[in-house]
Please model this.
Amino acid sequence: MRRHIIRWLAIATAAIGAYGCDESLPPRTEPEVVLVPTMSITGPAVVVRFNEAWTGGNIMLGMKNVHDEVLSDKADVTATVTMYLRENPSASRTLTYKYSDIVTPGLVVGNTLTIRVGQSIELMQPWNHRTAAGAAFWMSGIKFNQRADSKGNPYWESDSVHLVVNASLKVFERVQAVKLPAREFTITSELYESTVP
Model:
């Protein structure tokens, strides 16, 4: 009997306590933006040796977690990057980025992508600075001037041109692709042991 009363009192006390606290926590508001895309270029000088692009001028895409929590879900990493020279729009190229172009290691495990607070997933794909048909961007009517490197070896440097880049990026399966604002990068070409236009 005594156990029954104690049990009943405990239940009643809990009920009264719950009734006396009629204030509830404010509803959690989800942030409007949790992922912010970025775009940059690996270097403004495209170095060409033996008529092949070696370094510079590669487009890097990123998606940064600006939320206050870790984001983790099924991955679907893909991007489309379309580029052309403002001075000669016929010099254009479209690239498709995939998992193999991720340059930040350890974020995708199995088929799950995890991005910590303040962290970015970044993708970059080296390309040959040629159109889909094989025409070199640096042979697109750009003016060149002869220069000498620090050892006195001659090379040719182009005038500055403008690479216009449009891109879209998707990283999670359940989040639609984000179209990045168009960017324009100023680039030059440096030709070593190469045919001069």
Summary: Residues 1-21 have pLDDT under 50 and may be disordered. The first strand starts at residue 35 and ends at 41. The chain has one helix and 13 strands. The helical segments are 2-20.
